[in-house]
Amino acid sequence: MGQAMLSESDRRILREIQKDGRITNQELASRCGLSASACLDRLRRLREQGYITGFMALLDPAKLDRSLMMFIEVLLDRTTRETIKQFAAAIVTLPEVLECHMVAGGFDYLIKVRVRDMAAYRNFLAETLVQMPGVRETRTYPVLEEVKNDIALPI
């Protein structure tokens, strides 16, 4: 079901809970111009239909000793179904990897990693990433400044 099937009330609910996932149903209903019961019903339906996939707390990486962020291009030695399957199975087990995307272009995957510092990154690269199945080459881009880091979708 696409966004065209959403009512304006549904869109308002989604915008508000992206801003504050801990909002009470009463406050959400008030902000969206709905009764509390109608809001709760819509919220339940949006979860059941898969528009809302979960709720989580956003943590400060620096306070948790994960202040260094890197983007890494990964080129596989071959892009067979088996190599792709093996790489994907291995990469999802790594806690340092926050995101992994198969991309089209000059490399196969773009991954986002958070580690303590450059020494931790060197260890991750040498002991883990380049040892993974099918990895032929990597290119690393350390993040100097996060200009925008917004996970809210435009609705």
TrEMBL record:
* One Pfam assignment: AsnC_trans_reg
HTH asnC-type domain mapped to chain residues: 6-67
Q: Which GO terms describe its biological process?
A: regulation of DNA-templated transcription; response to amino acid
Q: PROSITE patterns from the xrefs?
A: HTH_ASNC_2 (PS50956)
- Which SMART domains does its entry note? HTH_ASNC
Gene3D superfamilies this protein is in? 3.30.70.920, Winged helix-like DNA-binding domain superfamily/Winged helix DNA-binding domain
Return the InterPro entries for the record: ArsR-like_HTH (IPR011991), AsnC-type_HTH_dom (IPR000485), Dimeric_a/b-barrel (IPR011008), Tscrpt_reg_AsnC-like (IPR019888), Tscrpt_reg_AsnC/Lrp_C (IPR019887), WH-like_DNA-bd_sf (IPR036388), WH_DNA-bd_sf (IPR036390)
Keywords, comma-separated and alphabetical: Activator, DNA-binding, Transcription, Transcription regulation
A Gene Ontology cellular-component term? cytosol
Task: Cite the GO molecular-function annotations of the record.
Answer: sequence-specific DNA binding
Q: Which domain of life is it from?
A: Bacteria
Name of the protein described by the UniProt record = Lrp/AsnC family transcriptional regulator, leucine-responsive regulatory protein
